[in-house]
Amino acid sequence: MDENKISEIKEKIISEIGKTKKSILEYKDLTKPIAPENAIGRVSRMDAINNKSITEAALRKAQEKLKNLEYMLSKVNDDDFGLCVKCKSEIPLGRLILMPQSRYCVRCAQ
User: Fold this and answer.
1) How confident is the model at residue 65 (pLDDT cuts 50, 70, 90)?
2) 66 half-sphere exposure, CB direction, 13 A CA radius
3) What is the tens place of the pLDDT at every residue in 14-27?
4) Domains of the chain: which residue ranges?
5) Residue 49 and residue 32: Cα distance in Å, rounded?
6) Contacts of 58 (CB under 8 A, 6+ apart)
7) Which of 97, 102, 103, 104 lies closest to 10, judged by CA?
8) What is the spatial distance between Cα 39 and Cα 27, in angstroms, rounded to a whole number?
9) Residue 37, pLDDT score
């Protein structure tokens, strides 16, 4: 992979890290405990608890994405960067731009 492509991917990874960290902060704020003394009805409380569990799942997914992005950023200058971990074929540039945390080609990711 040439230097221009690598620098483009590196910029995308850094940008995605920033967005993901911002999302994580928002999710953490939304997953704070629901105080029982709040004067909301039983149905509203159940809805709030349900929304909290959905947000917690999104938080875990965002944390996993951040971990993968940071890993890819540390590997961006390696000789085997951009190669599928499983089949060793080159991951298309478009996939790396859209999903910079991708470690697998489209075929192996399925």
Assistant:
1) very high
2) 15
3) 999 999 999 999 99
4) 3-78
5) 11
6) 23, 27
7) 97
8) 23
9) 62
In which residue are the tokens 């590196």 written?
A: 10
Distance CA 95, CA 91 (A): 7
54 vs 18: CA distance, rounded Å = 22
Cβ atoms of 11 and 76 closer than 8 Å: no
Tens digit of each residue's pLDDT (9 = 90 or more) over 29-44: 988 876 666 556 666 7
* Dihedral angle of Cα 79, 80, 81, 87, to the nearest 10 degrees: 170
Tokens standing for 36?
Answer: 């029982």
Residue by residue, DSSP assigns 16-37 as: HHHHHHHHHHHHHHHTSPPPTT
Let me know: does 28 contact 60? Beta carbons within 8 Å: no
- CA gap 51, 49 in Å, rounded: 5
Closest CA to 82 of 70, 69, 95, 71: 95
